[in-house]
Amino acid sequence: MNTIFRKSMLSVAGLAFAGGVFAGPIAAHASPAVDAKPVAAAVQQSAPKPQGDQSRITLNDEQTANVKAIIAATKKAGLPERAAVISIATSLQESKLENLGHLGDANDHDSLGLFQQRPTSGWGTPEQITNPEYSTTAFLKGLKQVDGWQDMPLTQAAQTVQVSAYPDAYAQWEQQATDLVGQHWNS
Fold it and tell me: What predicted TM-score, i.e. pTM, was given to this entire model?
C-alpha cells in the first residue's frame, strides 16, 4: 500500500508541475505589469545581423554627400534608421553611391542615378531619377509598400523594391550601410 500511496503522490505532484509549466506562461501574460515594455518594440529596435560576407568601399566626398542625402530624405519621409540602412545598402550595390547618368553601351537598359532606377519602368524622368532626394523618396515609397519590411532581411526588402537580377547581392553592403547611418544620422 505504501507503493500505491507513493505513486499516487508522484502522479499528483507531476500533474501540479505540468499544470504550472503550461499554465504559468498563460497566467504570466494574463495581467502584465503596468510599466512593462512590449516585446515587439525591443525586437524592432535591434537590427538583424548582416547576412553573408560583407563588402566595403572607401567613399569620396560625392559618395558621402549622397549618403547624407539618402539619410535626409529618409528623415523627411518620417522613416526610421533601418529604412536608411536598406536604402544605402541598395545604392551601394546599384551604383556604389554614385549618381550615375547614362553610361552608353555599359548602361543596364536605361538605369540611372543612385538606385539605377529606370524611366521606362515608371520611376520618373531622367532628371528626377538623377536627383538624390527624388530617387531616395521613390525608393522609400516602394519600400513602405512592402509588408513587414522592417523585420525582413535587408536583401529581401531591397529586392522586393528593386526586382534585381541579383537578389542576394544587397546583403553584402549591410554592415557598411549600418555604419554609415550610425555615423551620419545625427549629424
Answer: 0.72
